[in-house]
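Q: What would this chain look like folded?
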Amino acid sequence: MQYHRILLKLSGESLQGSQGFGLSVEVLDSYARQIRAAVETGVQIGIVIGGGNIFRGLQGAGRGFDRVKGDQMGMLATIINSLALQSALESAGVKCKVLTSIRMEPIGEYYSKARALELLEAGYVVIIGGGTSNPYFSTDTASALRGIEIEAEVMFKGTRVDGIYTADPEKDPSAERFDRITFDEVIARRLKVMDQTAFTLCRENGLNIIVFDMDTEGNLERVLAGERIGTLVEQ
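A: My prediction, written as structure tokens:
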């Protein structure tokens, strides 16, 4: 096994599937199967999920919402997604707990590093909802922060794209995918991996990132096994 503990960042938008909004049962079930297969290899998994399928604070601010209120609504959206994934995982026979960065028992336990580590060591998948609990910080930043806190060896960023390219592959058919790239090269090329705050946190704390396509079933297990799919961002 290549990794002992990982932080898996999932896109909220991916959870909507082809319906364009809300939650897709098919996507949730696919993610649950992939995570169960990963857990069966012995890896410990912490998860942070975005909320863009329900509400995005920055977009809300553009439509007249107060930015702080908009971000708080986005935080609640991530907790809805966390509960949905928890339900899918438990249905698949996976032990799972939701911890929230905002107090809201009995919906989820209040997050602390000590509690997260205790649960991970006991074989639970730990989903951490509510972002950082602060406005102006994305769920990418929350995933970087939680990955560092729980001492994950790597962040797996599951997206709808199969890695990092020289340009947007949807707009430029000649764009080439990187197998590996350094943090410095990403910055020099101005490639969009995640927001700058999250990226800097990972870079300064030695948390490497693997960007891969989570929507192709089986990919999570393949990446864990060391197959060269996706892109590794390293020091």
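The domain at 5-234 is CATH 3.40.1160.10 (Carbamate kinase).
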